[in-house]
Amino acid sequence: MSSSLSSLQAAAVPDLDRELANQIFDDLHRIGFDGLGMTRPSYGDGENQAHALFVRIAQDYGLETRKDWAANLFVTLPGKNRDLPAVMTGSHVDTVPCGGNFDGAAGAVAGLLVLCAWAKAGLQPERDTTLIVTRAEESVWFPLSYIGSRTAFGLLAPTDLETPRRDDGISLRQHMQASGGQPELCGVAPVLEASRIDSFVELHIEQGPVLIGDQVPVGIVSGICGSTRYRSAVIYGQYAHSGATPRRFRSDAVMAGAAMMMALNTVWKEAEAAGAEMTLTFGICQTDKAQANFAAVPGRLDLAIDIRSRDEALLEQMNTRVIEEAKRVEAEYSVRVDLGPRTRSTPAVMDPTLQAAAKKLAEQMHLPVVSMASGAGHDAATFAGQGVPTAMLFVRNANGSHNPDESMDMDDFLKGVGLLERLLSVRAF
């Protein structure tokens, strides 16, 4: 059958295996549980075990598996014409420290469920349909965005391989090699070509409260925010006695940081009042435990700055304001501000044709959906940035994300997987 979206009737709808889904999530929980939440570091033992789990299940269903030089996993149900561009889906299975069991993993499990259901039903698509389980999507471990999907397209610079992981200081190169990758092939090994990919669809839990608030199980993503970040900014002041040092003689790192944060917060409010869409977060703000105390003027403040928007021009404007405010507080508070390296990710627009198809399919399924933006970054942004027609589906999830309390209902998940299956089917059969 043609992959044209003018026809929304594809192969017969196969049964999605709820028991298999529960089994995989239980196994992932066992692999990643740290006593409170899930911790599966990028290129760590937990992520390796999760990939091995997917390989084992895929092979049980007769699916093809392979890994690229960076140890990204590809699971494929071969099509009748393997020369046609492939339909792809996927997500990641690493987590932030003490995160939840569904962020990323839900999308990887969803793709595997679809391929297993097709294989069990004896269905063969016209073109290859491939699940990619990416490595290292959570940039909390290495300060690089979308490592797995970028390596898959050959977008990672060889110098990036020397980046140390935050918890152990060991380089990405060494971790990649220990996980079965071949970092020496960076820049040499074959990589994904956008022209060989028909489309990419990623399912993911929503990481905010919109679907819960709207009482809708599934969202269709319109775009993914980009970011500008300073992950390791430091304000250096001068430690001094809290009672013996008048204000005019102080070099107070905390007061400088507070002034800088409040000024940027005011800029954020002004941007929102003008109709702009962005977020601003200071996820780290701490003094030095070894030196700070209640009787001393603080001489050092560490902070992280995270700005996100779908408007790239606004991101650059905010970055300029960050630099300006840093210079202002340096002069006003007699401190030195070291913003450290800036990291960035580019906003991505989801394919309008795929969005329209997803909405039409949801109507046929009598599935309530809403259109919404993604404030968080995802591997789908890499595919879209390479010119691949890309879509994202969100599944309702209580209690946010990046915490142990992620709470995705299995009924909601299977509704999302059902829509994913229909959308992939339209493109693949």
| Percent strand | 15-25%
Overall structural class, as computed from helix and strand content, comes to alpha+beta
Query: What sequence of helices (H) and strands (E) makes up the elements?
Result: HHEEEHEHHEHEEEHEEEHEEEHEHEH
Termini separation comes to 5 Å
Main sheet, how many strands, which sense, barrel?
Answer: 9 strands, mixed
The domain count comes to 2
Fourth CATH level, the homologous superfamily of the largest domain? Zn peptidases
* CATH topology label of the largest domain: Aminopeptidase
CATH class of the largest domain: Alpha Beta
Q: Give the overall average pLDDT.
A: 95
Which parts are unreliable, with pLDDT below 50 for 5 consecutive residues or more? 1-10
- Tally of helical runs: 11
What's the helical proportion of residues? 25-40%
Which of globular, elongated, flat, extended, rod-shaped describes the shape? elongated
Strand segment count: 16
What's the gyration radius in Å? 23 Å
CATH architecture assignment name of the largest domain: 3-Layer(aba) Sandwich
Pfam family, one: Peptidase_M20
Family: Belongs to the peptidase M20 family.
Cofactor: Zn(2+)
InterPro entries: Amidase_Cbmase, Bact_exopeptidase_dim_dom, Peptidase_M20
Describe the structure.
With 429 residues, this protein is of the alpha+beta class. The protein has two domains: 18-225 and 348-428, Zn peptidases (Aminopeptidase, 3-Layer(aba) Sandwich); 227-345, 2-Layer Sandwich (Alpha-Beta Plaits). It is built from eleven helices and 16 strands. The strands form three sheets. Strands 1, 2, 3, 4, 5, 6, 14, 15 and 16 form a nine-stranded mixed sheet that branches. Strands 7, 9, 11, 12 and 13 form a five-stranded antiparallel sheet that branches. A two-stranded antiparallel sheet has the order 8-10. The longest helix has 22 residues, at 312-333. The radius of gyration is 23 Å and the shape is elongated. It starts with 17 loop residues before the first helix and ends with a helix.
